[in-house]
Amino acid sequence: MRHRATPSVKALSSLVAALAFLLPTATAAPAAATEAELPPGVTLSMLSLGAQDADDFWTVHVYLPATVDGPLNTAGTALGPKEIADRVAGALREKGFEPRLEQVDQPAFADRPAGVLGWIVRLGRYPTSGEAAAALTRVKAAGFAGGTRYTAQDGIDPGAPQKVHVLRVDFRQFRGTVDTDFGPVLNGTETLTDLVAATGAAAGINAQWFYNRAPGGLYVKDGKLLGSATQGRGGIKITHGGRRVDVDAYTSHVTLRAGRASIEIDGVNRLPGEIWNCGGVGGDQPTEKPQHDLKCTDSSELVLFTPEWGLPPQGEGAEALLDARGTVLAVNTTRGASIPPGGSSIQAIGDSAAWLLAHAEPGGRLTVSERVEDSRGHRVPLTPSTTILQVGPTLVRDGQVSVNAGADGLIREGADQTFTYNWALRANPRSMIGVDDRGRLMLVVVDGRQAGYSEGLGIAQTAELMKRLGAVEAMNLDGGGSSVMATAGTGIVNRPSDATGQRSLGNVILVRP
After folding, report:
1. Buried (b) or exposed (e) across 280-308, using 16+ Cβ within 10 A?
2. Phi then psi for 266, rounded to 5 degrees?
3. Using one digit for the tens of pLDDT, what is the confidence trace for 470-481?
4. 431 and 477 Cβ atoms separated by less than 8 Å
5. DSSP structural state of residue 57
6. Does 86 score more than 50 pLDDT?
7. Average pLDDT of 116-144?
8. Is 454 in contact with 465 (CB distance < 8 Å)?
9. How does DSSP classify residue 379?
10. In whole angstroms, how far apart are CA 441 and each of 166, 175, 199, 234, 471?
């Protein structure tokens, strides 16, 4: 059996047909919120696509070692080269099991050609998760490692059941705004329903991924830079209260000047030394290229904190406290003092601490300059109506599917492609934002990881979905257990995949009347 993680032409055609609502199993219905609960111009619907297939089953997915001679009982990679998969399959046969080798194909992305991602080893076909779990116990007892999988969630079945929640905002009727928000401080998380209630919003959706209790990547709110860029990664710019949406790739550069001396600031509003998603500046390890959900490190950094962050982190190093004009109020040889009202704090670790102590003195002045650029190298004006969320990957550009999987770091550097397989190719809950050719903003959530109810989508299928919903520009938001949509009148609209319900989030996108 060939396990193809990219839909064939026939499969994509089936998906297109389903999304065009031509299949009997594809239905569109009003969601739980009634029209009266939403402002004029805002509509909410739920689409039921596909259906459970009798050929879907639970199976045991056997993990592979990182090297051909690696230990089998502690293996942790989901897929690998055929040589390693052959070895694991042979070892399983020696123990009396009947494994299957399946090839996983990577789809063609906008910046990466199609090809073989790797090989996986599976065994058994079980009608229930319990039976698969029991088989896994036997496999582990025999000296192997692994997990259970439901085949409808492999991301290759266009007919798998999906629940799609679509919130459309038509600005020809809607007089409010669509923008972002977070809790009392940036360094903290809040549930979507709490933020909808606290802000008086009509509806909302999750937005950016978050690490160390704060949004990760470029974040501009109301024209203020609150998070520095994962350099060159995709993002969405929202201006004029949501009436203009642009998908592009962004970089940011923040410079600190003391007299004639200057130095680049490594980050804004994040823990010094930890660069989640990588894509930073100044010698980060192991790479300065974007790598989604990977933490890079740098032992020598300067990080700017704004009042929105809350109380800055404590630790060794140095810090300079500035007022609103950049006058240095204090210089400390440890980190963690409160940010002056309306001012900022610049923290430094490693060699950067020596630079800061040498150039900052109480009563002196430090100047911080910021520059955000789009993919063409043009400066992006940070006006009071500008919001930028670096999320990704891009899904649709100029009406065509366009997934920048390489530039966005969805494809891992190195031999282990487990992350790419699990995050980008396999089906997961997804959240998306887009705009159609009539200027209507779309906020979309697809439920996932719920066998027989809604399986979720791979990134290639997610892009196809947004195109079929009419998007001319679309961007992927944080997903998985974070995918959630809510209205003021109804509360949570979808079914978040975490057993505990909705997660607390770093920031959200809100529709405000």
Report:
1. bbbebeebbbbbbebebebebbbbbbbbb
2. -75, -35
3. 999 999 999 999
4. yes
5. -
6. yes
7. 98
8. no
9. B
10. 10, 13, 20, 18, 9
Q: Which of 391, 389, 409, 440 shows the shortest CA–CA distance to 181?
A: 389
Q: What is the spatial distance between Cα 33 and Cα 36, in angstroms, rounded to a whole number?
A: 8
Instruction: Kindly report, residue by residue over 233-286, the tens digit of the pLDDT.
Output: 999 999 999 999 999 999 999 999 999 999 999 999 999 999 999 999 988 999
pTM of this prediction?
Answer: 0.92
Is the confidence at residue 11, as pLDDT, over 70? no
Give the three-class secondary structure for 346.
strand
CA angle 417, 423, 426 (to 5 degrees): 95
pLDDT digits (tens, 9 = 90+) for 161-192: 999 999 999 999 999 999 999 999 999 999 99
Burial 322-338 (b: 16+ CB within 10 A, else e): beeebebeebeeebebe
Structure tokens at 5: 């993680």
Distances from the Cα of 168 to the Cα of 46, 122, 443, angstroms: 11, 41, 7
Beta-carbon contacts of residue 414 (< 8 Å; ≥ 6 apart): none
User: What is the distance in angstroms between the CA of the first residue and the CA of the last residue of the chain?
Assistant: 53
Question: What would the pLDDT profile of 380-407 be if each residue is shown by its tens digit?
Answer: 999 999 999 999 899 999 999 999 999 9
Is beta strand 162-169 parallel, antiparallel or unpaired with respect to 485-487? unpaired
Question: In this predicted structure, what is the pLDDT of residue 30?
Answer: 47
Determine the pLDDT at residue 129. Answer: 97
Distances (CA, A) of 65 to 70, 72, 77, 80, 211: 5, 6, 6, 8, 29
Measured distance CA(140)–CA(393) in Å, rounded = 36
Distance CA 177, CA 186 (A): 21
Residue with tokens 């998985």: 480
Give the per-residue SS3 of 203-230: EEEECCCEECCEECCCEEECCEEEECCC
The token duo for 250 is 């962004």
* Alpha-carbon distances, residue 492 vs 211, 361, 508 (angstroms): 23, 51, 14
Q: How big is the chain, counted in residues?
A: 513
410-442: per-residue pLDDT in tens? 999 999 999 999 999 999 999 999 999 999 999
Give the position of tokens 């919903």: 469
Contact by Cβ (8 Å): 161, 14: no
Query: SS in 3 state form for 66-109?
Result: CCCCCCCCCCCECCECHHHHHHHHHHHHHCCCCEEEEEEEECCE
Q: Tell the burial category of 145 from Cβ atoms under 10 Å away from its Cβ (0-12, 13-18, 19+).
A: buried
